[in-house]
Amino acid sequence: MALFGEKKQRTYCHRCGDRVKKLNYRGQILRSKYCGRCFCKKIEDGRTCQWPRVNLVIPWCAEHLRCQAGGIDGGRCDRAVKENNPEKYKFCADTHNCAQSDCVYARLPDRPYCAEHLCSSPGCRDPRRGGPYPFCLKHTCQHLYCTSVVPGDSDPSSPWRFCETHRRCSRNGCSRRCHMRDSGSAANFCGEHYCQWVDGCGEERAAGAEGHWGRHRCKEAGCARGIAAYEGWYCREHECDMMECRYPKLVGDYCHSHTCQRRNCKKEARMDGFCDNHQRCEVPGCKEDRLVEGMKKHDRCDRHRHGSCQAGGIRPCSNRVVEGTHYCEDHLCGFRLCGNAKLFGCSYCEAHKCPVANCQELRQSAGVAYGGRRMTTTMGFQPLVAGYCAQHSCRHGGCDSQAMRDQFFCAVHKCSTHGCMSEGTNSARGGSAACDAHYRGQGSSQGFFSHFQPLPQFAPRPAFPFANDDFQGSFGSPDDFRPVGFDPLLR
User: Fold this and answer.
1) What is the 3-state secondary structure (H, E, C) of 360-422?
2) CA angle, corner 139, sides to 138 and 143, nearest 5?
3) Rounded to whole angstroms, how far apart are CA atoms 371 and 385?
4) Per-residue pLDDT tens for 47-66?
């Protein structure tokens, strides 16, 4: 406070040099080092800004007029705030302030509007329609009071300018609402004109088709069903059942490439063109099918798995061999435990055929009715048999000699009486070989056939026991061999 009689010290403007008077700004008495034409209008804590205004027209200093948004390299933006009014705006109009009129918020990165005024459709840079609409004009349904989003990239008159609820059929002249699919999405056409393809086609159905567009209609002649897959050409009934194959079925459930190449087989083919039951034999050069026995599938064909018949001849036999032998059914000896090849024109091998010329019957063995020699065996089922067949063997027990012509016994065991077919006696009679009847002198009175015991029309088929003592019983029943006819009078 100045003393009585002292003059008050005057203050002059630090910018223009004019005398600084008391500043009355909006009813406040302010103290400043600038005059009323040079002071910055930014008031803080009852004091004016320490910097002068930019010019007489803009009543703000350069610091308060500067945009508050960050600039390049972490600094501040050098532009002035919008409308040069730092009391209302904080950001420059060109880069950082929302482009919406009277909006004071900063715009979003790479967008001209703030989050409150930018269209909510992803990627859109346009402002919202205003009011309750969260989207811009082109992304908002054209139906009155509808706020739903639409694609926005179609013509204003297109049905796509409406949402799925209010969309109209895209067919010219049709004003029906679009069909709503089971998934909740709307088709481009009404229920009468939309394509019913399962994956949601947006095209119009073809004329005469069962609800499908021409591209989604089965290409099979006369079929109006839809295709089974988007990249396919045929419906489920006419398309190959192989996964991802789009070719038509041939005869069964597969196309030509996926059907077994074996004639009349309709099963699925593998990489080599044949099904599991018709795979080629793994032997190089063999074109036969692999052997399938029930549910078991072998790697080789029947011939290469069991071997080929080794019978010789002009034409080698390639038939399947009998298990455990080297010959097929046609060339194997008729005796079921023999592994030798049969003789030409005969049913038995040399070891089992009767030694009598032109006789093709099976030899008898010891222990069988009417005699014969015991059969012995070696490894590999190659029996060594002696004796003769039932017609040519001596009926004396244990004898392996051939019976005499028109007789039942050999020369040693037949009755010594001429014409008698009975067996000589086994009793000691001083070396006599006559039968009992002729020994008593009764043979002449009872005729030639007095002691004749005719054989049955079919002799029993002999069974051959092993010589090995470990094997008990015979090799089979009489039915294992074909019947042998016998008539001694016809020899």
Assistant:
1) CCECCECCCCCCCECCECCCCCCCECCCCCCCCECCCCCCCCECCCCCCCCCCCECCCCCCCC
2) 85
3) 13
4) 778 888 888 888 889 888 99
Q: With 0-12 CB in 10 A as exposed, 13-18 as middle and 19+ as buried, what is 480?
A: middle
- Helix, strand, coil shares of the chain, percent, nearest 5, are 5, 15, 80
Dist CA 334 CA 276 (whole Å): 37
Scored b (16 or more CB within 10 A) or e, 93-105 reads beebbbbbeebeb
Closest CA to 249 of 263, 262, 233: 233
Query: Whole-angstrom Cα distance, residue 389 to residue 371?
Result: 10
For the whole model, what pTM was predicted?
0.37
Helix (H) or strand (E) holding 305: helix 302-306
What's the half-sphere exposure (Cβ side, CA atoms, 13 Å) at 438? 22
Q: Which two tokens stand for residue 28?
A: 């406040």
| 224-267 pLDDT tens trace | 677 667 677 788 788 888 887 878 887 788 888 888 877 888 88
d(CA 47, CA 33): 10
Q: Is 411 exposed, middle or buried (0-12, 13-18, 19+ CB in 10 A)?
A: middle
Contact 59, 53 (CB under 8 A): yes
- The pair of structure tokens assigned to 418 is 């001429």
Instruction: Let me know: does 348 contact 333? Beta carbons within 8 Å.
Output: yes
Helix, strand, or coil (residue 278): helix
Give the CB-side neighbour count of residue 163, counting CA atoms within 13 A. 15
- Segment 317-351, tens digit of pLDDT: 877 778 778 888 888 888 877 888 888 888 888 88
DSSP for 225-256, written as a single string: SBPSSTT-SS-TTTB-SSTT--SBP-SSSS-T
Taking only the tens place, the pLDDT of each residue in 270-319 is: 777 888 777 778 788 787 777 777 777 777 777 777 667 878 766 778 77
The whole-angstrom separation of Cα 403 and Cα 364 is 13
Using the predicted structure, report yes or no on whether residue 208 has a pLDDT greater than 60.
no
Tell me the DSSP string of 158-188: SGGGS-TTT-B--STT--SBPPBPTTSPBPS
Sign of CA dihedral 476, 477, 482, 485: positive
Rounded Cα distance between 245 and 253, Å, is 12
